[in-house]
Sequence to fold (439 residues):
Amino acid sequence: MDTELTARTVSIDLLIEFDETSNLDFSPANELEPRERAQVREYVQNILRRRSYLDFIIGEFSSITVDEMKPELKNILRLALYEMLFMGGTPDYAAINEGVEIAKLSMGSKAGDLVNAILRNIQRDIDKLPKPAFKDRTKLVATTFSHPEWMVKRWVKRFGEREAFKLMQANNQRPSYYVRVNNLRTKTKNFKLRMDKLDIEYKESDWLPGYFKVESVAPFISKDLLRKGICLVQDIAAGFAPTILEPEPGETIYDLCAAPGTKSIVMSDMMNGEGTIIAVDINPKRLEMLAQSAMDYQAENIKIRQDDARDLNLKLADGVLLDAPCTGTGVLSKRADLRWKRTEEELENSVKLQEELLEESANHVKRGGRLVYSTCSIEPEENWEQVQKFLDKYDNFELEPLDEFLPEEVLTEDGLAYQTFPHIHGCDGHFGVRLKRVK
Ligand SMILES: C[S@@+](CC[C@H](N)C(=O)[O-])C[C@H]1O[C@@H](n2cnc3c(N)ncnc32)[C@H](O)[C@@H]1O
Fold:
């Protein structure tokens, strides 16, 4: 878009790019001031969280369908409408004027007039907006909660409507964040003092030591606490996998899908930097992030290796973490883009890749050693069914109970896996098990 760079114009550009390529790259926002940069993330994620509903309303007040609109027009309208309906603090007239100006500058005066007409009509009816009323129940639910129809279908079938609605509502909320103290750089006591001094509000978790629930990660970025390696941003449920692997100082640990590396960093901390973590990933760009983090966090026992984890030549390890690539349906509140990116076919591909990775990971565990399989998915095929398939095929691994590591409320009934859901546990949806090699 050929207009002045602001949080609004950059967000519209990112949304257009996402529509065209399914790729969400926030780097163009780096040219903005930190506050505006954060605003871009808010706009983009919030609009993606409500995309189907916004499109429905726009369609109701426009003579052409949303699908027929040019990407620029569609996304200018989405952003302005999001501001009018969901963003307190921006008066409707300001949202409309901004939308009209951007449309005029980027697409010409006719487009400006069209944006003006559609948004003013919506504003006139803002207290009695139409509700989606499709006969097709899946389409109705998908539009109301802004999730793709295939997800709605499978979740309603699995959980029933009431529960599925709660899950989708949770996915549409602004997520909560956790930060974890890095004991390689500081102590929990000092970290708390530092947050107090900076007037950062936090709630210390009683699920795992060192995790703090915070409203926003912005102060940790602006005060350089992440770059200085004092703490890292990691959902508490993402901390469960390293916790149940229980890496000890001096051990050899493989992290086989490691990048961008938050779990490797936590394991390095748990090992007090002693012993070796071999962090493998297939993606060189993501490994660059891991390398930077390892330096920032002084996680000196991490050795990085770019490789396909299905084809590794490594000796046996005390512990192996396979934090497998997955659909990410447990993290749709933080990664709203994923709901529009993922397809049912991808789920099938993901299951196949996980199966191959799990079998290969198992080959690197020494007798008596541990293998942790984890995902940030809530789909049974990627989780429990994957583990069951593995156990049916290999009798040299056994599941171990997790109650000594994690609170009961995040465990399955038999205590052999953890599975969290955003609407139940107030954190991301993660799954994991610990397998012991018995022969
Ligand atoms: C869920 S992410 C890992 C997140 C990481 N454990 C963390 O905590 O930061 C999955 C990773 O698997 C990697 N991956 C996918 N296929 C792979 C393969 N065949 N071999 C190794 N890594 C692979 C992806 O590049 C991605 O970084």
